[in-house]
Specification:
CATH architecture: 3 Solenoid
Structural class: mainly beta
Number of helices: 4
Radius of gyration: 24 Å
CATH topology: Pectate Lyase C-like
Number of strands: 32
Number of domains: 1
Helix content: under 10%
Strand content: 25-35%
CATH superfamily: Single-stranded right-handed beta-helix, Pectin lyase-like
Largest sheet: 30 strands, parallel
Oligomer: single chain
Distance between the termini: 61 Å
CATH class: Mainly Beta
Length: 469
């Protein structure tokens, strides 16, 4: 045994804060109704797991891991995660490798007046760093109610910074699929990452609450420095995602598939009485209508990038004129919307009280649309902005491999080949297409989300997906 004399320098250093405390990261296990309701020490043994996801989360400390074994976690009113951590001690909450995916299914009639979310990530303060990843988990919110709440029922409400969702399935939210904070006087959702996930069938609550009600969006999070990539948004009534609010800046939304929105969604199109409701597959903008030279502090959504997204099927009603593929609303500054493929919408590009400054909307394919570019207000395309080099209503048979089968790769001789521009620096950012094929070989770039010669269509259907009966 070391002598006290030999340990004395180490003890003095520790007392003075000169030596770091050792980090002890534990792994915990949960199985629904296992019998162990609160013993965290026992839950470190895979043979004696804890009985609920919430109890397992309550065991965690920075650096720990919680594995949810296969089964249905039916917890009321919701699962709450509120712990702060650091980049050096990230936390993981995940399905157990090799198991069937765990399913989080709130019980019938679940109502939580503070969140309406199956998983709520929120601490006691306004700017808190979680450094947590949720991975390999399915969430079905079919039972939750949100009849009286505008923000509505979500699978996940993320209101801490540095939160990652990887390979998550979110289904049947009454309103939006993934929600976030970030409005003035609200907690921050900055540095939010959503990747390799499926957001399905949001917007279950009908009818809409007011004419411009676009709730039922796959992802509506007011986050700066967000990364949203390689996801599928399918069947969401209000659209795919919003890059919106004044505090949304320096975020990247790329390589996503958005399909079956508005009247083509699972929930159909039930408009507000006498008025068509709006649906925007991708919406970009701030919250204020004020030119930056008059309101320099209000740039709106700024320095964001939206590229390589495939957006299909949003015009299921011949009378609906407010379904838009790429929508611009109020202020957008230094935003790049490049190389997206839109198919089957009323409006390909739409401005609603928009004011764009140094914003580029280029190299997009707008196919099978009624109106290609619909600039509805004077001055929408403001100083330094360009809306050009967009391919409007090309012959779909000549352009795509199989548009009827949602295969929007370019075929030989497609008019989209070399139809884009690199004059605004596209190739320095959009270096590959949605399937990972290198772009800008030569002097030009193809229009749309796919470069000619790209591999199989990106974002295949998920496997091992659990759906509640």
């Amino acid at each position: 045994m070391p002598s006290l004399r030999s340990l004395l320098p180490w003890l003095v250093g520790l007392t003075l804060g000169l030596l770091p405390l050792p980090l002890h990261a534990f792994t915990y296990y949960a199985v629904p109704s296992s019998g162990n309701t609160s013993n965290c020490v026992a839950a470190r043994n895979i043979a004696t797991p804890i009985s609920t996801a919430q109890a397992g989360i309550n065991c965690l400390a920075p650096g720990d891991t919680l594995y949810l074994r296969a089964g249905t976690y039916s917890e009321n009113p919701r699962i709450l995660y509120s712990m702060e951590s650091t980049a050096a001690q990230p936390v993981l909450v995940a399905g157990y490798p090799g198991d069937a995916r765990p399913l989080i299914l709130p019980p019938p009639g679940t109502v939580d007046s503070t969140t309406y979310a199956a998983i709520k990530i929120m601490g006691p303060g306004y700017v808190l760093d979680a450094y947590v990843t949720f991975k390999g988990i399915d969430i079905d919110n079919i039972n939750a109610s949100s009849a009286d709440n505008d923000f509505g029922s979500t699978c996940i409400l993320a209101c801490m910074q540095h939160v990652t969702f990887d390979d998550i399935t979110c289904m049947n939210s009454a309103r939006d699929g993934i929600g976030g904070c970030g409005l003035p006087n609200n907690p921050s959702s900055d540095y939010l990452t959503v990747r390799n996930s499926r957001i399905l069938w949001s917007g279950r609550h009908q009818p809409t609450m007011f004419p411009e009600d676009t709730k039922g969006i796959g992802m509506y999070a007011g986050a700066a420095y967000a990364l949203v990539e390689n996801n599928v948004f399918d069947g969401c009534r209000g659209g795919g995602f919003n890059v919106q609010y004044n505090n949304v800046h320096h975020s990247v939304y790329r390589n996503n598939l958005i399909k079956n929105v508005a009247c083509d969604s699972k929930w159909g199109c039930i408009p507000y009485p006498g008025v068509d409701t709006h649906s925007h597959a991708i919406s970009v903008g701030g919250t204020n209508i004020c030119p930056p030279e008059s309101c320099p502090q209000q740039e709106g959504a700024a320095d964001n990038q939206v590229y390589n997204n495939v957006v299909a099927h949003g015009h299921g009603s011949p009378t609906l004129v407010n379904d838009n593929c790429l929508n611009f609303w109020t202020n957008s500054t230094r935003t790049k919307v490049w190389n997206n493929t839109c198919y089957d919408f009323y409006n390909g590009i739409m401005t609603i009280s928009a004011y764009m400054v140094d914003t580029y909307v280029q190299n997009n394919i707008l196919a099978n649309v009624v109106v290609g570019v619909n600039i509805t207000n004077e001055g929408a395309v403001g100083p330094g902005s360009l809306v050009d080099f967009n391919l409007v209503n090309p012959n779909t048979t000549a352009t795509f491999v199989n548009a009827a089968g949602d295969d929007f790769r370019l075929k030989a001789g497609s008019p989209a080949i070399n139809a884009g521009t690199n004059a605004t620096g596209v190739c320095s950012i959009v270096t590959t297409d949605i399937a990972g094929t290198t772009r800008c070989i030569g002097a030009s770039i193809d229009a749309g989300a796919y470069e000619f010669g790209s591999g199989p269509p990106a974002l295949p259907a998920p496997t091992n997906l659990r759906i509640a009966p």
